[in-house]
Amino acid sequence: MTDCRKLLLNFESTLASIDAAELIVERMAQISGFDEDQVYQIGMGVRETMVNAICHGNQLGSAKTVSFDASIDENCMQVIVTDQGEGFDQSQVADPLEEEQLMRGSGRGLLIVRAFFDEVEVGPGSGSGTRVRLVKYCAQGA
Amino acid sequence: MSLSTEVRQVNGVSIVDMAGRIVLGEETGKVRSTIRGLLEGGATKVIINLGGVSYIDSSGLGELVSAYSTAQRSGCVVKLLNVQAKVQDLLQITKLYTVFESHTDEAEAVASF
């Protein structure tokens, strides 16, 4: 991986945007030299982050968008996803690995994101929403 | 790739062959409606064959958990068959391997009820 590639997009709050973001980062990762497993992990992690932004953050609101900033340089891929929702308190989110949470039908997305990316930062966006920053190092740069 | 589901009966066990991706949207809805249909038909032993499923997101995992719980409440046992490597990794990450009984051989899975 030698040059830097950067992509800035605003996605509508639709399920189609989730598929689109996943395809975009997978393609960016493929052409930049990430291996097959890394491409899968990047795609899945971005999918989960977009699901959280669009479904939980923006609640599929047609007037709200998701800001998407993806970049790759010689060391890593970085993706920043920012929604326009009400934000959330991470300390109030139940641990999906706790025994009493295992049978829940949801709440595992961020766990998977943390497993698949090297750095995950979750915090407030510039407005009321949530900003998630993901970094995945390429094998040579890890 | 969308999700396809086919149901067949083997020795009193309903086997659901799934192929494609199980992700949020139509695909998770298809899993839900397929399991609901089996329960409404009186099924008590169900095997979900994931041999053709190489990709599941957290919503898909959640749908499988919900299917398991709903079936259990109806007196039905749900087991998994032919879980692919990437899906197995997700079951490990989420600890759901402790919830689902999983088999790699269909005859063995059918005989396990």
Plain-language structure description:
The complex is a heterodimer of chains A (142) and B (113). By secondary structure, chain A is an alpha+beta fold. Chain A contains 3 helices and 5 strands, in the order E-H-H-E-E-H-E-E. A 5-stranded antiparallel β-sheet of chain A has the order 1-2-3-5-4, covered by helices on one side. Chain A is globular. Chain B has helices at 26-40, 58-73, 85-93, 106-111; strands spanning 4-10, 13-22, 45-56, 77-81, 102-103. Chain B is built from 4 helices and 5 strands, in the order E-E-H-E-H-E-H-E-H. Chain B has one domain (4-111): STAS domain (Transcription Regulator spoIIAA), CATH 3.30.750.24. The A-B interface holds A 15, 18, 40, 44, 47-48, 51, 55, 96-97, 102-109, 111-112, 115 and B 23-25, 55, 57-59, 61-63, 65-66, 68-69, 86, 90, 93-96, 98-99.
What is the element layout, followed by pairings?
The complex is a heterodimer of chains A (142) and B (113).
Chain A (H helix, E strand, L loop, with lengths): L4 E8 L2 H17 L4 H22 L7 E8 L3 E7 L26 H8 L2 E6 L5 E8 L5
Helix pairs in contact in A: 1-2, 2-3
Chain B lengths: L3 E7 L2 E10 L3 H15 L4 E12 L1 H16 L3 E5 L3 H9 L8 E2 L2 H6 L2
Parallel strand pairs in B: 2-3, 3-4, 4-5
Antiparallel strand pairs in B: 1-2
Using brief descriptors, characterize the structure shown.
heterodimer; A: 142 residues; alpha+beta; Heat Shock Protein 90; 5-stranded antiparallel β-sheet; 3 helices; 33% helix; B: 113 residues; alpha/beta; Transcription Regulator spoIIAA; 5-stranded mixed β-sheet; 4 helices
Number of domains of chain B: 1
**Strand ordering within the main sheet of chain B:** 1-2-3-4-5
Q: Overall mean pLDDT score of chain B?
A: 97
Let me know the number of strands of chain B: 5
Strand count of chain A: 5
Class of secondary structure makeup of chain B? alpha/beta
Number of helices of chain B: 4
